[in-house]
Amino acid sequence: MGQFAVIGLGRFGSAASLELIRLGHSVIGVDVNAKIVNQMADQLTLAAIADATDEHALKDLNTRPVMLLW
Predict the structure, then answer these.
(1) Selection from 49, 1, 57 nearest residue 29 by Cα
(2) Which residues in the chain show pLDDT less than 50?
(3) Is the pTM of this model over 0.85?
(4) Alpha carbon distance 36, 51 (integer Å)
(5) Counted domains in the chain
């Protein structure tokens, strides 16, 4: 089981996140849009509202992902 952080939960990011979950992986989804994050929250390991361009915001999530999907 791998650990992934998906930055951006738009059309591609949400589809990739759900496929990774379906395959048994742990997925942290990050997006600046609270509505999108709230829609995905129950389906992901962790969903966070954060600005991915802010390095401190990502560090605050305390993630050490194996792979980042942009």
Answers:
(1) 49
(2) 66
(3) no
(4) 13
(5) 1
